[in-house]
Amino acid sequence: MTDPLLICAPMRIEARAIRRGLRSSASSAETLRSGSVPEVLRTGFGTTRAAQAAKNMSHRPFGPVAVMGVGAGLTDDLRPGDLVVGTDVGAVSCGSAPLLAAELRRAGLSARTGPITTVDHLVRRHERASLAAAGYLLADMESGPLAAAAGEHPVAVVRAVSDTPDRPLAGIVSGGLAALRSLRAAAPVLRRWADACGPRQVLLAGPRSFCAGVERAIEIVERALERQGEPIYVRKQIVHNTRVVGDLESRGAVFVDELDQVPDGATVVFSAHGVSPAVRQDASRRGLAVIDATCPLVSKVHAEARRFAADGYTVALIGHAGHEEVEGTLGEAPSSTVLVQTPEDVAALRPRDGERVAYLMQTTLSLDEAAQVSGALRERFPAVRGPGSDDICYATTNRQVAVRAVAADSDLVLVAGSANSSNSVRLVEACERNGTPAHLIDSAADIDLGWLTGVSTVGLTAGASAPPAVVEEIISALAGLGPLSVSERVTTTESIRFGLPKEVRQ
Ligand code: SF4
Fold first, then answer.
1. Does residue 36 register a pLDDT over 80?
2. CATH C-level class of 212-294+498-504
């Protein structure tokens, strides 16, 4: 953006608070890096003056537009000084609201997102209730026309709560002071938001998001809930994604760490990562009804571990300590299996018979990392045997190949996925090995606006456990920062489906 941020503030005291906030941050290193100097425009109190100011805006150059000021909180949970970042303001949709609200929270402010309505009078108690019932978080008297005047420019609306349903006009003085303090503290963050604005392209990696094993595991829990009603117990996270787990929880799934948290006789689902035989035996001893959502590709590795161990092999399991899948596979043949994470672990390996060494892999490893360790095994034990077909699953491989293809042409890659998702973490590493900065994010709110400054091409992918909806949310948030073109690079297509266990089959 060549034109600077324009901050519209209706009243003199609001404009003054914002200017002070901008001045107080003017010496910070972050602000000095920024080239643009925001302009604070006092637009006047009320809808009539706002409409006039909006008309006048067409005669001047401006870049991103922020409308800031105080407003009336409509819901009982809002407190004076809370910030409301508008998602929808009149007919204007502010796509970047989740990014801005998260940035405000990272700055230590209390910020929520939601619809804001503009009215032509001060709202009274009964009217607050009906506006809240209509879904609005805050009412003001200026934002609608000013936001509309931004036209095609990125727009943000940030209002600080001055009065609330339980402290309406009587509390307006103390509430107003709290609101002005919040506006002052928010002003530098708006500048960071403006610095992140600009035209951009998104390169979507294909394939991305859910794999067949994750879709199957989620469907198993959904069907179990439909058939048996809540609660359905699930040992560990069904897949490693906070959004998926939260959604199933809200529908009646109860996630537990261990079986002793499951009541006798209840139904328990084993997660996609698999369990050791000891857990199966425990469930059977307790009389629990088990539905196994272990991914068939993980079950294949378990079977290989049992077969090699039965043939007298020492099994080197290439994987990450503590991961649930690794725990499950180690448990298949505990006296014959050794975890190796690095070439150094291979050097330290002491097999019973150097001629009878085999290796297996965690399904979600990075291709490079696994090749390094399996190479070290082949070098030290020339007769080493590997799995019949590669243990790193098709979905892991495909997503790594796809993200490398977009990383090569991106300034930055965003990977949707949770921090405990192994395959998602590997996608970040794959980009970084290629020299492209990458970040793992659970949702659009995890995007730090500073990452986007000066970035014109964003690669975007999602780990095998991350829902496609998160990718859509990220795209719509980025579209709120300026013109966005989205294209997809498909390196392969997937058609694999796994059958369901008999307990939930129709
Ligand atoms: S990532 Fe691979 S092994 Fe894991 S659930 Fe998906 S398909 Fe199965």
1. no
2. alpha beta
Instruction: Classify domain 200-208+395-490 at the CATH topology level.
Output: Cobalt-precorrin-4 Transmethylase; domain 1 (3.40.1010)
Short-list 376, 395, 392, CA closest to 384: 376
Distance of CA 49 to the CA centre of its chain: 40
414 pLDDT exceeds 60? yes
Q: Which fold has domain 297-380?
A: Cobalt-precorrin-4 Transmethylase; domain 1 (3.40.1010)
Please tell me the distance between residue 239's alpha carbon and the centre of ligand 1 in angstroms. 10
Residues in the ligand 1 pocket, defined by CB under 6 Å: 211-214, 272, 295, 297-298, 363-364, 393, 395-396, 423, 464
H or E stretch covering 347 = helix 343-347
Specify the residue for token string 């161990």: 309
Burial (CB < 10 A; 0-12, 13-18, 19+), residue 3, is middle
* Topology of the domain comprising 6-196: Rossmann fold (3.40.50)
Distance separating alpha carbons of residues 236 and 21, to the nearest angstrom: 46
Which residue in 14, 142, 304, 325 is the catalytic one? 325
Average pLDDT for 31-53: 83
Best residue among 366, 396, 399 to mutate for probing ligand 1's pocket (most ligand atoms within 8 Å of CB) is 396
pLDDT tens digit sequence for 56-115: 998 888 999 999 999 999 999 999 999 999 999 999 999 999 999 999 999 999 999 999
**pTM, entire model:** 0.94
**Whose CA is closest to 86, among 108, 103, 111?**
111
Contact 376, 341 (CB under 8 A): no
- Listed in order, the ranges of the chain carrying CATH 3.40.50.1580 are 6-196
